[in-house]
């Protein structure tokens, strides 16, 4: 089946510069955002919450200072939520390294990287603002320098005005 023809797993799909953002909602909560390649077409929101989430994604893609305000599902471990909280405090236009985040929460850089990769709400929890000490690092559990996910991370950092990626 061609994913551009049908994507029932998403409540909405929003076009993005790299492809699209898939939005999953359930029981009045946003369950997940997923970065999707260009083979996915837009999908009209299935309900009021997915419409609200889609509009907020569109606003962020136009204005990197936009702040999300969505009812998010309670997912992840206690440790992951600590990491995501620290990441959410990184201002737009700035980055911290995995090691710096690890120091903030008294953990290890590798564990921070794993929690970043497990992020259910990219864009809302801006894990793209966490980089390796010597460069870009990985993204969404991918580290292929020329791959789709690191291309998304580069775009997001440039969109937010991070000097090294403008």
From TrEMBL:
It comes from the Bacteria. GO terms for molecular function: methylated-DNA-[protein]-cysteine S-methyltransferase activity. CDD domains: ATase. Pfam families: DNA_binding_1 (PF01035). The keyword Hydrolase does not apply. The keyword Cytoplasm does not apply. Its EC number is 2.1.1.63. This is Methylated-DNA--[protein]-cysteine S-methyltransferase. InterPro entries: MethylDNA_cys_MeTrfase_DNA-bd (IPR014048), MethylDNA_cys_MeTrfase_DNAb (IPR036217), MGMT_N_sf (IPR036631), WH-like_DNA-bd_sf (IPR036388). Signal peptide: none annotated. Keywords: DNA damage, Methyltransferase, Transferase. NCBIfam families: ogt. GO terms for biological process: methylation. Residues 78-162 form the Methylated-DNA-[protein]-cysteine S-methyltransferase DNA binding domain. It is an enzyme of class 2 (transferase).
